[in-house]
Amino acid sequence: MDLFEYQGKQLFASYDIPVSPGDVATTVDDAVAAAEAIGDYPVVVKAQVQVGGRGKAGGIKLADTVDEVRTHAEAILGMDIKGHTVERVWIEKASDIAEEYYASFTLDRSAKTHLGMLSAQGGVEIEAVAETDPDAIAKIWVDPVDGLTEEVARGWVAAAKLDDAATEGAVDILQKLYRAYVDGDADLVEINPLILTPEGKVHALDAKVTLDANAGFRHDLFEYEATQERDAREQAAHDKGLQYVGLDGTVGVIANGAGLAMSTVDIINQVGGSPANFLDIGGGANADVMAGALEVITGDEKVRSIFINIFGGITKGDEVANGIVAALERVDIDVPMVIRLDGTNAEEGREILSAHTSEKVLTKPTMLEAAEAAVELAK
Amino acid sequence: MSIFVDETTKVIYQGLTGSQGRFYGLRNRDYGTQVVAGTNPKKAGTDVEGIPIYASVAEAKEATGATASCVFIPAPGVKGAVMEAAEAGLELVVVITEGVPAQDEAWFFNKVRRDHPGTRILGPNCPGVISPGKANIGITAGEIAKEGGPVGIVSRSGTLTYQALYELKLADIGVTTCVGIGGDPVPGTSFIDCLEAFEADPETKAVMMIGEIGGSAEEEAAEFIKAEMSKPVAAYVAGVTAPPGKKMGHAGAIVSGGKGTAAAKIEALEDAGVRVGQNPTEAGAHMVDIVASL
Fold this sequence. Notes:
Subunit structure (chain A): Heterotetramer of two alpha and two beta subunits.
EC number (chain A): 6.2.1.5
Largest interface: A-B, 51 and 63 residues
Number of strands of chain B: 14
Structural class of chain B: alpha/beta
Shape of chain A: elongated
CATH superfamily of the largest domain in chain A: Succinyl-CoA synthetase domains
Organism (chain A): Iamia majanohamensis
Distance between the termini of chain A: 37 Å
Pfam family, one (chain A): ATP-grasp_2
Cofactor (chain A): Mg(2+)
Oligomer: heterodimer
């Protein structure tokens, strides 16, 4: 899950990574109070959204006076940035910047180890640097078993050609950032820019952190969870524990397993239809899960037909069928539904369903035939 | 022949006393797999329908001569379970559990590779491995796989693995081994590991590969196929129409910044001479053609 900048900075601060003093605010008055608490102008008013490009959108403003804080906070709170409404601003003391760098850790799937990237060209889109001047990014691969030693960090900083004045601060921050990445169970930690001040201090001016929700058993993610920015359909699905991605079409999709769900989306497109969503009910789906999935799908007004594509492995066909039957009783479904069921206990499942088939509830023997039927019914 | 498992494979189920472990452990035994033991430190000395439970993998291995393990332990315990199996010297550890933290996965992959090179990890978050008629370790429904070869299957996605088996069975084509490698960020066994093993297996005459968007594993597999494989390959890549930037369930299935798209993967595979289907059924049809021409 993606964190807001302020949450990322709070996480960084808990690992002793230096960040600018500041506070988060959801109202103009609180933003002013936060600035007054810092008490040292100028301050920066920064929109908190889980999407990039807020600077260009006017979501980051410098304020020299308390009145300017008020003006900027009024403008930024409620602003729309790429479909995300700004509900929070982060107010922090403005920093004098001598140099801007870039630092990050993420998992390199190919190398199967952690990848650290460090560049003296920070403050800009790192993807652009990677394309135009790849040598400007110093990369290291850190074996998870070994971790990042000071010696390796030092060599890495030297390779990135940071200014001499930044060396000690950077070596220290990078080791702490690696700790935050591993112990914090992050998929990504990124500081852009990591800055060097004229006084020779190095600190994190921004924070981008993506946490691995699978590690929730080790951390209290409740507060982060509560602030995830999702659209209404995605939130409804999430509340029911379903893997859901909203799309723009008319055929609702329910499948078990990410691969099959993706493939179902593909095949609907290929036979001339348009999927309304990707919905993976996951493994071991029971009646409640299936009913919940149907509730989410039928809550989408664009949906004109539903394609339920189940291939049982860990998911059992009879449980899915019972779920569908229970859902039909619980959920008011006024669009036709096409079901394809195979795999573990599929025969038992088909038997259960056969008593409930009608003009609105069809079963088809193959994925392709079911997709064609669902697309036809959506027309 | 088969790869990774056969009728002599003796398997321990770590988590046999849990509901999922019990269901699939017993089902795998019914299939004919040698399920020789389960482990649970609190239930040592008991049994699950005649399958003895030991306190540790080492004890179970000592008592039964087991060579493989199937892990049905909840995600928080997977790191420990994998290390226990590797330290006991098992040759194959199949991890069915989904939702294992990526940091754990990266750690035990590297730890096992370094300290226990004789141990192969399959998964996590994989459906397991089935060599039809010989052994079924994991959650694949055995009846959808026809035995006797000549096709080997390797897949990143569980349900699409079943779909591939099913397409072939409908066409009356048998399978040597079907390996689900799982869709997580650091799979213990890669496409290339499986392709290499299938290339070396005399009974496998052709390979069906199921990939998906995200990462670069399919591109790397394509390079391997081009350089090293003499056997024909048919493939399907899921997520052709997935919107960029959206995470489609699997940690692996996300397209970011134009990298890891299905189009790029399909191009790389086709460039390596692989026949790529637009959907699983079409990929199955390609394999039917390939088998007919063998």
